[in-house]
Design brief:
By secondary structure, the chain is an alpha/beta fold. It has one domain (31-295): Zn peptidases (Aminopeptidase, 3-Layer(aba) Sandwich). Helix content is 35%, strand content 20%. The relative contact order is 0.17. Mean pLDDT is 93; it is low at 11-19. Bound molecules: zinc ion.
């Protein structure tokens, strides 16, 4: 009898370790491989409407297929057009997959995969901005396709963020879908900060989200709140990236990002200048946050 009790206790411990009660540990090798490829010269800075941008999109679709992530509606690719000031039309394409959860209320996880392209024959590789967030999104999709989350999770690699948050604007235009969305989690520039700090932006607008984020394991990084108050002036990041259009229609958001740095929007924002140690910790932290927000 006593032996049985000990055995069942032991089994109980084993089972609780195996169930997704605790956040997963990242596959960091895959993460580094993804950011290296997405920020490579071959992708030519991933400017919307270019061949390099299409190449990045093909890579994301290939990764989504490989992990068995179901496509959102009929396919991963969702096109939209942007009108330039000179009247020219440019086609953008969001890449979207979905994991059905226990409930149909949705959390939309976003990261833009486009960047600035080539200027004066210099490639703007956009490793931090935003191959880092895109690869983070791939890591999260990879994990959540293997479990059944509480919410339905939509993984949206958005196009044409640079120059107007156009991919996000196209996404939120789908109002019947938006009725089900309870939260947007956006990642844009998450791979470098020399003070080991990462920001979670948005709790000024949505203070109910702060206690959830305060409970997560942040590893060796400091998770800071802020950059979201009107008095922050040009350091108010409420509309600085793809979470803006979600907030505009009243959908709560958390945006993860770092302070601007010397490589921001410069050709030196390359794979080589990304501190891999910080980046791995940052994505692990965000994964812990997504896990906690989904469990809430
Ligand atoms: Zn960006």
């Amino acid at each position: 009898m006593k032996k049985l009790t000990i055995l069942s206790l032991f089994l109980g411990v084993l089972i609780s370790c195996a169930s997704p009660e605790t956040p997963p540990t990242l596959d960091t090798d895959q993460l580094i491989e993804d950011i290296r490829i997405l920020s490579s010269d071959e992708m030519q800075g991933r400017l919307v409407g270019t061949e390099g941008n299409a190449m990045a999109r093909a890579y994301i679709i290939n990764r989504f297929e490989g992990m068995g992530l179901p496509a959102f509606r009929e396919s991963y690719a969702h096109e939209f057009s942007i009108e330039r000031n000179n009247g020219d039309l440019v086609e953008g394409t969001n890449v979207i997959g979905i994991v059905e959860g226990k409930s149909d209320s949705m959390i939309v996880i976003t990261a833009h995969y486009d960047h600035l392209g080539v200027r004066d024959s210099l490639i703007f590789n956009g490793a931090d901005d935003n191959a880092s967030g895109t690869s983070g999104l791939l890591a999260m999709a990879d994990y959540f396709t293997q479990i059944t989350p509480n919410h339905t999770l939509v993984f949206a690699a958005l196009d044409a963020e640079e120059g107007g948050l156009n991919g996000a604007r196209a996404f939120v235009r789908d109002s019947s879908l938006m009725e089900k969305v309870v939260l947007n989690i956006n990642m844009d520039m998450i791979s470098q900060n020399d003070k080991n700090e990462l920001y979670a932006v948005g709790t000024y607008h949505y203070p109910e989200l702060k206690p959830i984020l305060e409970t997560i394991d942040t590893g060796e990084l400091s998770l800071l709140f802020g950059h979201d108050r009107p008095e922050d002036g040009n350091q108010d990041w409420t509309f600085s990236s793809d979470h803006g259009p979600f907030h505009q229609i009243g959908i709560p958001f958390i945006y993860f990002g770092v302070e601007d740095h010397e490589h921001y929007h410069r050709p030196t924002d390359t794979f080589e200048t990304v501190p891999q140690d910080f980046y791995k910790k940052s994505v692990q932290l965000i994964l812990n946050a997504v896990f906690a927000l989904d469990n809430h």
